[in-house]
Amino acid sequence: MYKQTKLKENLQQIGLICVLWIICMFFYSLIIYFTIDELEPEIINFTQEMISGFILGLLFGLTNGCLEVFIFKQRFKRIKFGYTVLLKTNLFIGAFVLTVIIFILIKNNILAPIGLFGKPQENEILEFFGSPVFLKHGLYAILFSFGINFFLQIDKKMGKDVLFNLFLGKFHRPRKQEKIIMFLDLVSSTTIAEKIGDQKYSAFLKDYFFDLDELIVESKGAVYQYVGDEVVVLWDVNDGVENNNCIRSYYESQKSIYKKKEKYLELYSVFPQFKAGIHFGEVVVTEVGGSKSEIAYHGDNMNTASRLCAAAKTDSNGLLISAELLSCLQYIDESYSVESVGLIKFKGKEHDIAAFSVNAKN
């Protein structure tokens, strides 16, 4: 199931990149049509320019999307932001050359025979790469590539859908949403920090958060915040309930981190262990800040999830969920054992919270 989710996420990202490139190449085709000076205006065909823009945009999107998903996402995850943008742009030059060759072959062997383009020219590929037009087109394409890669990196830094929602002004005014909320907290963080020192502890947290992230994304969750040694994860209700993703995320993360135990012990002489609390309920989401804006989630249900996480530190399984969340989950008994721990009294809250301890059967 996680492989299917990951495949879907990868295809969606490639699709987004394709859409961005098609838009860029349509725009560029319009520029060529109205301002080009290499050819006589009367011989420029608008339909051909639009077809060229679509095909080139699709090809650029596919090549860049595959580079993004299968090369950068897998092998260059920890490169610095600026280096990532520059490296992607440089690799694009090679992709640009390959894409232009494929386009010319498609144009000459598929589109020309059906009358959408004129008769193919001899040595068209060599002549194109040896002409000033190649340099001009290449410059435009590299600038577009830099802009798209910069946008994707900013979107990644801000979190899932945050940049898009800020751009649309979707949360300019507070609005209510139903969310599944998980607070995940590192065990004995103070002791670890004292043992290995601040700088090494910072590197330890960086690796720990990085290793958690992929499993969270594959469970269709989104990291909302890193608060000290704590991770706050949110799911849309349907995504979190599907296949018990919000519960599965916790145990898959445990398995993944445990497999890297030797790496942590070798680097830091300690191994990360964590507890979590998960709750379901209505939250208020809004855009906050002036010189620095972000989307923030507020409400009593955020506080309840945090309190459950704190209470989970004394639970043998390390995971407590609320009765509200349990009522949403389907077929949970097939994979997990659920045991009531009764009502938990939280300081400052009027009503007690019915909590349940969850443990994986296998």
Question: What's the short story on this structure?
Answer:
The protein has 362 residues and is α+β, with helices and mostly antiparallel strands.
Secondary-structure map with pairings?
Blueprint: H1 2-35, H2 46-75, H3 81-111, H4 124-129, H5 132-158, H6 162-168, E1 175-186, H7 189-196, H8 198-218, E2 222-227, E3 230-236, H9 237-241, H10 245-259, H11 261-268, E4 274-288, E5 294-298, H12 300-312, E6 319-322, H13 323-326, E7 336-344, E8 353-360
Parallel strand pairs: 4-6
Antiparallel strand pairs: 1-3, 1-4, 2-3, 4-5, 6-8, 7-8
Summary tags:
2 domains, alpha+beta, 362 residues, Alpha-Beta Plaits, single chain, 58% helix
